[in-house]
Design a protein that fits this description.
Blueprint: H1 2-6, H2 17-25, H3 32-42, H4 50-59, H5 69-82, H6 90-102, H7 110-123, H8 146-156, E1 171-176, E2 180-188, E3 192-199, E4 212-217
Helix pairs in contact: 3-5, 5-6, 7-8
Amino acid sequence: MTLDDILEPEGGVVISRSMVKHLTSRSHNLPSTVLVDVLRLLMRYEPGSDQERLDIMNRLDWLLASPQPHLVEAALQLYFHLCSGELCHLRADAVARAAAALCRPADATPPVRWLTLELVRRLGPEHHPAFSPHYRYFVPRPSDGGALSLRLVQFVWRLAGPDRYLFTAPKVFLAGSPERVCLTLFDVPETGDLTLTLKRSESRPDGRTAHPAGVGRGG
């Protein structure tokens, strides 16, 4: 933001209560790129009461329903800043709302899915339960590239509990060496043929593997 850059030597723009109300009340009309900067700017403001904190969050509540990961992440950062003291429990509620919106689009592009995955990873394990009901969003798809598929396979087991399945494979081929195991799943509805290269030292006793070393696709 130009004015903030100009005033940076003096600490940047001073955020007043009236400015906060003005910006949050007109947030619907701002482009998403500008809105991200505004949300980061608002994190400098310290509300005078819990009621004022709630008022700000209520005016920005619509952001938690956005399917845009970069916008949701900026909104959650502000919510976490505002949800202090007796309002800490609202952090989990905000993440749950965001999870439902982010993981809803069935036609999300690989770049958007990558950003969503990175957002969930940055939120940390304490907020993973909010995304568990939506774990199938993180199962690799035929349109995903190898790099995204690998990161998804490495992560999705954290969300899917023992009573859920990740892949349905009519045919399976397993080959191995002392160091690695190559598992090929044929005709997987979600991904097509999928080959996982697993390090034996990282295999689990229950047959699941947390950290695949590589992902490939059948031709």
